[in-house]
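Progress report, Aim 2. The chain analyzed during this reporting quarter is listed below.
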Amino acid sequence: MAWIGIGNNPVDYKGPIVDLNRKMLNELRGELSEEVARTALGAFLKTNIGYTVELLTGKILEPYQRIVVKGWFQKNFVLTVASRSWGKCIDKHALVLTDEGLKTIKDVQVGEHIWADKESQMILAKVENPKEEGRKITTNRGYTCEGKIGHKIKTFNSTTLEFEWKNIEDLRGEEIVPIRYGMNYWSDETPISDYMIEYQPELKNNGGQNFNVIMLSEDSDLYYMIGVILGDGSMRQENMITVCSMDQEIEAAFRLMVEKYIPSAHVKSYTKDNNLASDYRACSSRFKTFLNYMGLNNKCAHEKTFPVKILSVNKKKMAAFLRGLFDTDGGCTLNEKTHRCEIEFSSSSYDVISKVQAILLNYGILSTLRHKHKAGIYRFSNGKDYQTHDNWDLAIFDRRGLEMFNREIGFGIKRKQDKLNKYLSKSSNNIYKHNMLPVGQYFKTKYGKEIQHQFHIGQYRYLSTARLFQFLQTSFIDEDDKIKIRSILGSNCYFESILDITTTETETIDIQVDKEECYWSSGFINHNSTIMSHFCYLYCLFNPGHHILVCAATFRSSRQIVERVDEWARSKRGILLKQAIEPLPNRGTMTKRQDLIRITFKNGSTITAVPLGDPDNLRGFRCNVLVIDEGLLISQN
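Predicted structure tokens for the chain:
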């Protein structure tokens, strides 16, 4: 069944549907001459755009994308209005930062604001996709990104010092992935106050029974105790809230919570068999109802989930919650001989620990997530076999992260905080060992002994961002490289290696954002793909001697269209496309200047990208096709 759109109401299309492939085959008889064969092959490739794209680049166009490209070939003037959601297909459970807090992308709504790369952007549209083949990327520190085939993520090219967008299926594990951190983007919801407003009428009509719950308030102590209960607490017994701890600070905080919010209840303590820890219990159905409202469940440790209401609170309340969580399920170790310090957090709930890792990124704290224990039946020291569950560890060990944790969150347990204070009290010069990039060879090759002598980088393959900052103060580093260094330093990214790539089946979500072409998810910067690059090289191949000029509001946007063609030609699947491009003396495929980038094909056609900031930049250019990308962003002047 074919359809044609009339207004907003599609109707059956009754016109003839021509099978062009069958028609061409029927017209071909006997042995073909070279000229006829070339003409027939060209007509077939132009008719079957999807097949041609896959043949030349290995990329697969969606049906609607094939229709759009065909339409561009058939018209002299085309205005295409396309959302930025084309290709933003990320797993529906991926975490994103919104103006209402951290959410899974499946829970975001049109009209909310989401953190992009530099700032927040409004969500204009959202599309849910069926389960399709995808890839899951895991970095050395345990950050993950999962998306369907065709999804793009931001990478760093150490041979050019530039950021690049790559399809997730094209990653080979050798790439450097920038992890964006320190966004400091928080919501300011007041879930406790909302609870009071929502449940107050019910409480008033309850004859004054347990009316003390009405005294709940938005204070940090209560958020701290919610973190404590999530960490070492249990609510599996009816109406009972239990916390197990060996620390006096936890006992005091629990007793204060009961005294302040449920004074009708009494704290009962029970010493464990090992005499090291005690259970502290209080009974209150109403307070337990409040904790359930906040997102705490009545399940076992491995079935716990991160309290959904906590995800929407401000920075100060989140810090209090995390302090309670790290006071119970976290710790601090200090090796005085090696002067190494590590903050660790352990959980048998991946939902809890993965969200903690993402929240720490928002503060600017890097952490490493590891799968410490695999579920199964194990024999313990008492000779008995027990069923165990998966367990994960989260570690903060770089000095900057430890300093940030101390400043923003800290411990409430004195013995833990004392270790952290002792470590931080001694100065350190390890800034030159933090955030390392494999760019040593680039600088040694380009600047030789001069840079090796001045900075003593020797045979180092990796250089820190702190070292790159020093390069900005030198006279022999050229301006192009200084621009690239400033881009690296200004990205607020930690540069990670890929640990693992797995093939998955994933249900994904597309979102369309307002201005930027990307969005943040668990540290990764995710991008929409574009079909304009496919159109450009196809048009050049089918039209010898023609010239395409690509313009955009920024040179970055226009050059990306041409750079994608170069990227595909250099890929393993792009051998045929590369053969069609005129090679340069340096064996590259692109002519690069500060204000121009160009690919020349062997048939005489070219694709040229230029900036449009100054109209004078276009003077002197002649073209058969003018491509204006993101026209809405171009000034009317």
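The chain has a mean pLDDT of 84. The CA atoms of residues 88 and 582 lie 33 Å apart. These observations will guide the mutagenesis work planned for the next reporting period.
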